[in-house]
Amino acid sequence: MSTPDGTGEGLDHDLPLVRYRILLPEEWYRIPLAPEECEEAVDRLVRQRFKGVDNAPHLKANARKELLDSAADARRNGGLEMYLCLQSAGPLTIPASLLITLLPPSAIPARSMEELLAHAEATADPDTEVDVVGLPSGPALRVRRREAPPPQAPPGTPHSVAVDHHLPLPHTDGMLLLSFNTPLPALADALARLFDAVAGSLVWVGEEESS
């Protein structure tokens, strides 16, 4: 699926407008985080997921509220858009997500990729993978780590696996952060390969025409 061009329009930052294009599998659902588009996208998803279920209004309302709350939190932190995996494996949906965030220079602890790598390595847990990868869009800092379940999660909930790609924005000191996540450690390696492929599909709109 070729997504609409992402932008940083409407956010509270001093960065120039950034445009990019990214490819995801057809089974991933896009939720733009701009307020005027987000609610419509969430409502459409809730209707789709609860199609034919007429006796669960509270579940539908809770699902809608959780999605809108997550979207609002993401936007406050510079989020541009979210993607949710709707791919099925038998009777289950594979839980995975992508959040794309615009980071201003003030949110980045180092200026060069070498300094950013050194900072990430110095602050990472022992089981965290940190390296610089070459993507078609340019060099990126890749971090794969484990995330503990939230405090309200039921006992025995496994940790989730997060894969972040930090991509320097062209001609600015800002970065684009691609944050992938799955709560299924058993599928982490396979999904991490998918996450890396998605990150590798990103191109800067405008740069491709001028190169």
Q: Can you walk me through this structure?
A:
The protein has 211 residues and is α+β, with helices and mostly antiparallel strands. Helices cover 30% and strands 29% of the residues. It has a 7-stranded antiparallel β-sheet, sandwiched between helices. Strands 1-11 form a two-stranded antiparallel ribbon. Strands 4-5 form a two-stranded antiparallel sheet. Strand 7 and strand 8 form a beta hairpin.
Order of neighbouring strands in the sheet with most strands = 2-3-6-10-9-8-7
> What is the tally of beta strands?
11
Given as residue ranges, the uncertain stretches (5+ residues, pLDDT < 50) are none
Q: Give the C-alpha Rg.
A: 18 Å
N-to-C span: 24 Å
- Structural class, by secondary structure, is alpha+beta
Biggest beta-sheet profile: 7 strands, antiparallel
Question: Mean pLDDT across all residues, rounded?
Answer: 87
Task: List descriptors.
alpha+beta; seven-stranded antiparallel beta sheet; 5 helices; 30% helix; globular
Quick rundown:
This protein is of the alpha+beta class and 211 residues long.
Question: What topology emerges from the helices and strands here?
Answer:
Elements: E1 20-21, E2 28-32, H1 35-49, H2 57-76, E3 79-85, E4 88-89, E5 92-93, E6 97-103, H3 113-123, E7 129-135, E8 138-147, E9 160-168, E10 175-182, H4 188-200, E11 203-204, H5 207-210
Antiparallel strand pairs: 1-11, 2-3, 3-6, 4-5, 6-10, 7-8, 8-9, 9-10
